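Researcher: Next sequence.
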Amino acid sequence: MFITAHGGAHKTGRNSRLYFERIPEYKCDILEVDIRQKGGLLYLSHMPTLCPKKCLTLEYAFEKVKEHGVYINCDMKQRGLLEDVLALARKTGVEDKILFTGNVIDEDEVKKLSGGRVFFNKLKGLAFKEGNAAAIKKRMLDERFAGINANKMFVSDAFLRECREEGVDVSLFTLNTEEDAKRYAGMELYNLTCNNPACVRAVYEGLR
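Model: Next structure:
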């Protein structure tokens, strides 16, 4: 199981410099960042901004990923930027560390990607609910399709168990409490995205 530090983990502030400075304390495998583009600049921001130059750049995030040897979950807030992100990843030498989530909908576009893998937040015609895991698995045959990215508020434990049985990799977000950690850490999901990743890591290690 992988653990992702949600943007702003440990109360550091989403997409902030402090978030990146405290990477070692998260004990995580993956960092999550929110990606937008304006005027050719790929920058980090959950919401649109009139002054992207005041935000941290995606290149800065990639350099931190390279420094700490972790993966990066690129939560795409705009469509049509996948290849731009991959081009920058190749430039900074982290092309093998890229995962995509968020506003990535066109499955045909994903099949043509030159790198990275996608956890889909939604699949056309397939709800993330019990009874659909086998059909979801059939949609995951392309090498760029990593699995699904599901909100814990909208999926049942029964569906998650069904995904495990069918071999569907699930990235689950967002865990906030120790109770969340205890509930999900033993489910053998692919990834847990957490606001308290160090706590989730401790719970998970205690179950092994």
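Model: Strands lie at 2-5, 30-38, 41-44, 71-76, 98-102, 117-120, 145-151, 170-175, 191-194. The CA atoms of residues 42 and 85 lie 8 Å apart.
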